[in-house]
Amino acid sequence: MSSQSYMPCISNLGRWSVAIPWNRADDIQTRLRKRGCPTTVCLNPEDRMAWLEPWPEVDPSQLLAELKSLRI
């Protein structure tokens, strides 16, 4: 995932979201929370898709920077 480029987008509810690997969703969320970047994990089990929605106090650019620095 370290070479992955994360592209935030706006959902239909007006919230920022970032797609992440399905099989690493819990690990990524835990590591982000430890770095002071709380998020909500959203899962679509039918398509095995996962994405993060940052909490209101988290700037989307902070989320992207933290994801890049994780090098998972």
Tell me what the structure shows.
The protein is α+β, with helices and mostly antiparallel strands. The protein has one domain (9-70). It is built from two helices and four strands; from the N terminus they run ββαββα. The protein has helices at 25-34, 60-70; strands at 9-10, 16-20, 39-44, 49-54. A four-stranded antiparallel sheet has the order 1-2-4-3.
Report the structural category. Answer: alpha+beta
Return residue spans where pLDDT drops below 50 for at least 5 consecutive residues: none
**Which overall shape is indicated by the principal axes computed on the Cα atoms?**
globular
The major β-sheet equals: 4 strands, antiparallel
Number of domains: 1
Alpha-carbon distance between the termini? 5 Å
The percentage of residues in β strands lies in 25-35%
Radius of gyration over all CA atoms, rounded: 11 Å
> SSE order in H/E notation?
EEHEEH
Q: Enumerate the strands of the largest sheet in spatial order, edge to edge or round the barrel.
A: 1-2-4-3
Care to count the β-strands?
Answer: 4
